[in-house]
């Protein structure tokens, strides 16, 4: 169950204040139809994170366990630092697709916004670290929904009242802890070989 719970927690924390959360807020304000937006977030995240998880699982097979551990440690440390940098949303993000309706606009905008985003990178790393690929994808998708659905439903109210700096620091600390754990595992595996 760790393959489900850790990714859920990590992505939910990392997503708060992320540009896709800001995109969810923008789409909610533009369309004022929460359920098609939520469905679009779900579909886009599942597609994006499934591809990212598959990549992570494939990459994990290319390295020895110790090499993978060190690669994960460095990657998690980099994402920890990246998490401390606040995201901002480009003014036209999502606007160019508005004519396609709430669901399709959200699906396309979220899928594109997640490309190369820290939660997508985290999904690659988490699926490389944990053995249950499907649980990791479900967990990262749940994390995205936990962070974004309240924003869609509550609009500005929730986003303006969250302590974003503190949440970013907690998320960065979580990634740093994963980096330390991966380094510990790599050291342990290196000593065994």
Provide an overview of this structure.
By secondary structure, the protein is mostly helical. The protein has one domain. Helix content is 80%, strand content 0%. It contains nine helices and no strands. Helix 1 packs antiparallel against helix 6 and helix 3 packs across helix 6. The longest helix is centred in the last third of the chain and has 29 residues. The protein is globular. The chain starts with a helix and ends with a helix. The relative contact order is 0.26. The mean pLDDT is 81.
Comma- or semicolon-separated keywords:
single chain, mainly alpha, 9 helices, GDT1 family protein, GDT1-like
Low-pLDDT residue spans: none
Could you report the average pLDDT, rounded to the nearest whole number?
81
Query: Structural class of the secondary structure composition?
Result: mainly alpha
Percent of residues in beta strands?
under 5%
The whole-angstrom Rg is 17 Å
Helix content: over 70%
Instruction: Give the N-to-C terminal Cα separation.
Output: 28 Å
- Main β-sheet, in a few words? none
**Order of H and E elements:** HHHHHHHHH
Query: How many domains, in number, for the residues?
Result: 1
Counting DSSP H or I runs of 4 or more residues, the number of helices is: 9
- Name the shape in a single word: globular
Number of strands: 0
